[in-house]
Amino acid sequence: MVRVKNSGFTALKLLKQFVNKVIAGTGAGTLFAKIPTGHFYPETLECPACGSMPHIRKPRTKTAVTMDIGAFCAKETVLSCPHDQTVFASEQLRSLVPERGTCGFDVIVEVATSSMWMGR
């Protein structure tokens, strides 16, 4: 009877290498030749205070990074009320990235958690 030492360990090691290659091949940088672009608009179609239709105030473009999406170009259209100048921004974009920020909330939490566990 021939015994192979650590055959289970070798199989697990090869499986881990294969899984790592698959994960590396499905990253955002591999799947997208260039950074994907997302268009974000405010969810409101009328001013809640006066009922008028908001006008386009300005477009904003920034590169943002999240753990799930990776790097992407966020093009946001900001609206404002013509009467009381209330500003309307995209809540969907705000749920991913803080206002004026480039790193997503999930990246911020990951960095904070890692720093806490490393004792810094």
In words, what does this structure look like?
By secondary structure, the chain is an alpha+beta fold. It has one domain. Helix content is 35%, strand content 24%.
The gist of it:
This protein has 120 residues and is α+β, with helices and mostly antiparallel strands.
Features:
single chain, 120 residues, alpha+beta, 4 helices, 4 strands
State the helix count: 4
Q: Helix content range of the residues, please? A: 25-40%
Range of strand content: 15-25%
Order of helices and strands: HHEEEEHH
On the 0 to 100 scale, the average pLDDT is 84
Q: What class do helices, strands and sheet pairing give?
A: alpha+beta
Q: Report the span from N to C terminus.
A: 54 Å
As for the number of domains, it is 1
Shape: elongated
Oligomer: single chain
Number of strands: 4
Main sheet summary: 4 strands, mixed
Blueprint of the fold:
Blueprint: H1 7-25, H2 28-31, E1 37-40, E2 55-66, E3 70-80, E4 87-88, H3 91-96, H4 105-117
Parallel strand pairs: 1-3
Antiparallel strand pairs: 2-3, 3-4
